[in-house]
């Protein structure tokens, strides 16, 4: 059995069969959701184990490698797939207690999202990449509007306009690529990308950066994110902030490094643009997060700033910096999901959305509040948690590559992040009354938060369980030509 | 072999989970047994752990860190006895975490774990200071954390520069990125100009917490000063400035804990002088002063704690008075502590101040220390007189007596002050001893030791009106708050640009595209 | 060919202009659709060959059009249609919630 194809088809099948199951087999509905997401998780783990040994390629419908639809997986894709599956599983556990209305639509959309994300990560040609990106986007638009209030509609509308315009840029870039090379297969593009004339290539790369950038919220293309992520239900915000924007980032990174190689990027000064856009992104994100009154909006701006760190890591184009950046992608996915899920518990159970109204929550929901606090401290970048390690790696790589100011900005970011997360922590542990009653919270809501925060600690204490694998992932990314040769010559 | 700090860190988790009635015994046993383990630790490097691409050295025992470790553990025993019935579960847990991380930082041998412990200290002390009953601590703890994080980030930046230039993580005197290390250490040990966090926080926490805080944070700063910066003459001048200004600021305070906080700053100045003049005696004097300062400053904080405890919250010298009738034991202790800090012979302050004086040759430094010593004596005469002996206009009521635990804890420290004062070699031999020629109790030195106090007594008489505790304004000007406001202003401007207009947002996207493409074409 | 390309460019710019300059939500959606149409036209134009036949792989037909862009165009149309559907749904809901279709008044989320 091939995991890759099942990782895409499986969730898709479940998504649409859920509609029928909802009608006829309502009793086992929850069991089916849980078991299928566990199954996805197991599949992804087994895929990850395989790709660590050797990258895999799979061709649909027994066409030739270069003609049909291909799926490819390398360690990087494997790691992301595992992250997606893990978050998906935890978010589904959470949603069982969290989502009360429109259940069947919700889970259908969620599974389509998973399938499309997996497709986006595994796909082997540009056009399928575009299709998957658009499916993920459309599902996200729908999920952002899921709450059915004016905020949700407005946020979703802004998201859809900006997202679609961004999508058109991506499509235009893909068309131009096809026009120039006559192929959309990634493996062939690696070889033929040198045919593209310099002017058109710079245009294609700019279009890809702006198109995908407006989907993964690079400043100044970030404006939809602080509206959209808070408007969605907390579980969806966790997914969007945690993994969806990282999926777009991954897609962009792949295309960038296939169309041009590191030495070309450095020659055209694109790496400077990436790094300094990262610096601007992280500063703007932090500054705006400090201004926020609403907790989820604060978290959304903080997500933007984290994209900045990742961009700096990637922009160094060295093995260390990139593995730091990718490590940061995973770490941030864990931490931000934990934060959003905890914020969801606060807003749902205690009706506290503003930071001011969080007062005393640390005594009403001690465990969740502790989880939130730990996650916040993690995200600030304090040791001994995982974000600290990835920031350390990125900053060190930036210094070694000669980017002193960006490295300084990474550290400065920690102080800025502290200034607003501390406001939240302060509110959480402020005591207004003498005695607070502990509110009973469903274990399904608690488990994901606790799991994610403890994962942060574990990875922070033993980063070496992940880092060598990331190094492997980056090797394939930086030398994409070799990678595809290995893949297609066996 | 285990880093003594790690014992505390593990204990803090166990303390959090243990039962109410076992907790205090367990806390005591941990502290005492750590002391015993510390005795048994031989010198050398142990516990190396590969991490990322370097080695973490979790335990490196030298004479100096064993010396400081002893004092830290001893003080923690006294402090735990002092607050044994006052600490709640949260307090025990956080206190042990805090002490553990500051003890661990003394014993680690590489920059990375040094930084980690540094941050753990900041985090745990933040939650110690953050006190949900007193609203004001929310602001002060925020201020504390931000300021300390600035220091920590500066340290991290220094470490990154050092590591990328030198290539090893071993904890040594730094060569690269010195300004950043100086900033980090300066914030930690509250140099004048970077000291604003200290009086704010120590004066507002519950008294048993400020006892603990007073001993560790700044002293870890001094240790890192010793370890990272080495001896640099210009830092000695910074130290003397700190000592003098600290004492002057202390003199104008009426709240006892604020006064003591400024004294910490001033005493730190002494230590810096000792550590940076570059002579062996000066260095030993500085380290011994560190130990002494932990003992008597901790004792003083305990005493004022006992006063606060028995009067239910009164610590203003304007209102206090004639406490000697009501708190006899405490009065004995306060005399011992005040005499020690003033440097009167046969008490421990005398010894270390003498060593510091022997170690320095620069007349500016000597005179500076002299002035600071007069100020110190004066302010403690002030505490003694106005707090304990002068009869107050309104008799202050004592509502409860200090607990036995408090008295025992204070007694331990007072005894240590006396023992070190009489037999300094006991402690100094850990550091390798001092050459015989310093005869602490020769008549000349006795006279030198008494001088500042006598001068201070005369000053108290002459300038009574000026010294008398009187209501005063606290400093409204704070540069760091101004910086914060600027940061906020910039953010709000940025926020206004995001005015929710979709077309503006799309225009940004198109502009970015045009700029990007245009730049690539050029 | 050139004429077609000019038309494509005009359509694309027209779409962007509409998105930027019209206040009405529906007109913005129309602008998006104009942009999309121009892109699809571009795709078709790429594969077009004078006198080419449908891509049947047989020896009889020598001159065939490139099938790939056509497949892509179909997919792009499907994606565009579904996006438009979601957009129109949102436009209806926005009108119900805000009582207006003026995009410059739909800005409660800001900062």
Automatic annotation (TrEMBL), chain A:
Quick one: a GO cellular component term?
plasma membrane
Coiled-coil regions listed: none
The listed locations are:
Cell membrane; Membrane
| Membrane topology summary | Multi-pass membrane protein
UniProt entry tagged with the keyword Iron = no
Keywords from the named record: Cell membrane, Membrane, Transmembrane, Transmembrane helix
Q: Does the keyword Membrane apply?
A: yes
Instruction: Kindly list the residue ranges recorded as spanning the membrane.
Output: 6-25, 32-52, 72-94, 106-122, 128-147, 159-179, 199-219, 231-253, 273-291, 298-317, 329-346, 367-389, 401-422, 443-467
* InterPro entries for this protein: CPA3_Na-H_Antiporter_D, NADH_UbQ_OxRdtase, ND/Mrp_TM
Name-wise, this protein is: Proton-translocating NADH-quinone oxidoreductase chain N
Give the originating organism.
Answer: Halanaerobacter jeridensis
Q: List the lineage, top down.
A: Bacteria, Bacillati, Bacillota, Clostridia, Halanaerobiales
UniProtKB/TrEMBL annotation, chain B:
**Membrane topology per record:** Multi-pass membrane protein
Instruction: Write out the GO MF terms.
Output: NADH dehydrogenase (ubiquinone) activity; oxidoreductase activity
| Location of the protein in the cell | Cell membrane; Membrane
Protein name per Swiss-Prot or TrEMBL: Multicomponent Na+:H+ antiporter subunit D
Q: Does the keyword Electron transport apply?
A: no
Spell out where the chain crosses the membrane: 25-43, 63-84, 96-121, 141-164, 176-198, 234-252, 259-282, 294-311, 332-352, 364-385, 406-424, 444-464, 502-520
User: Which InterPro entries is this protein grouped with?
Assistant: ComplexI-like_HydComp (IPR052175), NADH_UbQ_OxRdtase (IPR003918), ND/Mrp_TM (IPR001750)
* Record organism: Halanaerobacter jeridensis
Extract the Pfam families matched here.
Proton_antipo_M
What PANTHER family has UniProt attached to this entry? Answer: HYDROGENASE-4 COMPONENT F, NADH-UBIQUINONE_PLASTOQUINONE
| Biological process, per Gene Ontology | ATP synthesis coupled electron transport
Domain (NADH:quinone oxidoreductase/Mrp antiporter transmembrane) ranges: 110-371
Q: Which GO terms describe its cellular component?
A: plasma membrane
Keyword entries, A-Z: Cell membrane, Membrane, Oxidoreductase, Transmembrane, Transmembrane helix
From TrEMBL, chain C:
Query: What is stated as this protein's family in its record?
Result: Belongs to the CPA3 antiporters (TC 2.A.63) subunit C family.
> By what name is this protein known?
Multicomponent Na+:H+ antiporter subunit C
The answer to whether keyword Membrane applies is: yes
Question: What are the alphabetically sorted keywords of the record?
Answer: Cell membrane, Membrane, Transmembrane, Transmembrane helix
Q: Which organism is it from?
A: Halanaerobacter jeridensis
Predominant location category:
membrane
Which Gene3D superfamilies does this one have? 1.10.287.3510
Q: Where are the transmembrane segments?
A: 6-21, 28-48, 68-92
- Subcellular location per the Swiss-Prot or TrEMBL entry: Cell membrane
